[in-house]
Amino acid sequence: MANARLELENQTIELPVVTGTMGEQAIDITNLRKDSGFITLDSGYQNTGSCKSSITYIDGDKGILKYRGVNIEDLAANARFTEVAYFLVHGRFATPEEKSEFSQQLTENSMLHEDMIRFFHSVPPTAHPMSILSTMVNAMSVFYPQYFVDENDGDRYNIMASRLISKIRTIAAFSYKRSIGEPLVYPRHDLPYCSNFLNMMFDSPVKPYQIDPETERLLNMMLIIHADHEQNCSTSTVRLVGSSKVNPYSSVCAGICALWGPLHGGANQEVIEMLDLIHREKLPIKSVIEKSKDKNSGFKLSGFGHRVYRNFDPRMKILKKEARSYLSTRGLNDPLMHIALELEEAALKDDYFIERKLYPNVDFYSGILYRAMGFPTEMFTVLFAMGRMPGWIAQWKEMHDSIPFKIGRPRQIYTGPTDAKYPGNQ
Question: Could you list the residue ranges forming a coiled coil in this record (predicted)?
């Protein structure tokens, strides 16, 4: 094993170099404070590996994304979401028997406890669906108190995973129905995962919903490309909260809250709102590009750049192709799609964006697709959370299985007062 040497004052610290299966290398500083008295400072954890993981691999320079070694392009083109969910959660593709059993578990767990449904009637109709989603997922620990998972109790883990993956779509659909004042549509046992969700979302007494196979295929694909993405903000949150040995429902609830932010999953909603603003105010693309480069303009170009990808986001390439195809085959002339294509073309020709490697990310075209499929803007991040659920569960389980298991506890560099006094009664 190779070592790195760190020179600190009059001492030399030997630090092991860890190499991953794809050639990634990291300097292991686990014992740095014990050996030297020093810690490292890395704001935003941009250069810190918080764990070893066998779930997702990203090469940001080459635009590569793999789930357990399988390219995202292969999975998006050929798999169904429930297949990928099982693959992530259990670490292998299901056998025909396991696939049938998993499908049955998803069906059996699709209903919500009737007392949980009462919660929806006490929530203001103006509440954001992400707020409702996080609240209801956390409430699952009340209705299903047997939440602690022994790593040797595979049955309990399987039930917990199936429950979360299945019920999140029911909660999501019920949240939407509540917001528009329509009666809830209960899940059907004769429909597969995505068809069931689409029916719960869009079926109504006055206009029965006809499930479109192409829309179902597209939703499967979009959930797959969102299913996991290494140690992002929400996934790291699930791991950190879960490291206290709290129940998985509370851990996932924390992840949903983290995902909601505009710098994370909420960006897909911001992209659509930005494109709509450009359309309504008839802003020239050239002026939009110039405003985005001016820090004093107050304008932000959403959907460009990524913390990890410094070349292109492979998920964006898939979504761009699918958006063009879906809108074309349905004769949908969405002006926001035209604006998005113009923006991308202009940005990729601009030296400012080229030098900073600012390329469109997964959020840039996902909202356009969701919009074309009939989803309201406030549901975009909810759909992101639905897709990410298997990844959160897999990461939670992998963290619990790690040896040695440790509670997450980052350090800090204190910069406050050094000798303040209690003022007493004044």
Answer: none
Classify strands 56-59 and 25-27 as parallel, antiparallel or unpaired. Answer: unpaired
Every domain of the chain and the residues it spans: 3-66, 70-261+377-401, 267-372
Q: Is 363 among the catalytic positions?
A: yes
Domain 70-261+377-401 falls in which CATH fold?
Answer: Citrate Synthase; domain 1 (1.10.580)
Q: From the candidates 203, 228, 313, 363, give the one annotated as an active-site residue.
A: 363
Distance of CA 187 to the CA centre of its chain: 24
The domain 3-66 having CATH identifier 3.40.109: the answer here is no
Specify the pTM: 0.93
Cα gap 29→41, rounded to integer Å: 12
Backbone angles phi, psi at 58, to 5 degrees: -130, 135
Task: Report the 10 Å Cβ neighbour count for 227.
Answer: 28
pLDDT one digit per residue (tens) for the chain, 426 residues? 688 999 988 889 999 999 999 988 999 999 999 988 899 999 989 899 999 999 999 998 899 999 999 999 999 999 999 999 999 999 999 999 999 999 999 999 999 999 999 888 888 878 899 999 999 999 998 888 765 555 556 688 889 999 999 999 999 999 999 888 899 999 999 999 999 999 999 999 989 999 999 999 999 999 999 999 999 999 999 999 999 999 899 999 999 999 999 888 888 889 999 999 999 999 999 999 999 998 888 888 888 888 788 778 999 999 999 999 999 999 999 999 999 999 999 998 999 988 888 888 999 999 999 999 999 999 999 999 999 999 999 999 999 998 889 999 999 999 999 999 998 876
The answer to whether 306 is a known catalytic residue is yes
Active-site residue, from 306, 313, 338, 400: 306
Query: Partners of 17 in the beta sheet?
Result: 27
Angstrom distance (rounded) from CA 98 to CA 105 = 10
Do the beta carbons of residue 80 and residue 102 sit within 8 Å?
no
Identity of residue 217:
R
Q: Where are the beta strands (DSSP E) in 73-142?
A: none
**Domain 267-372: assigned CATH number:** 1.10.230.10
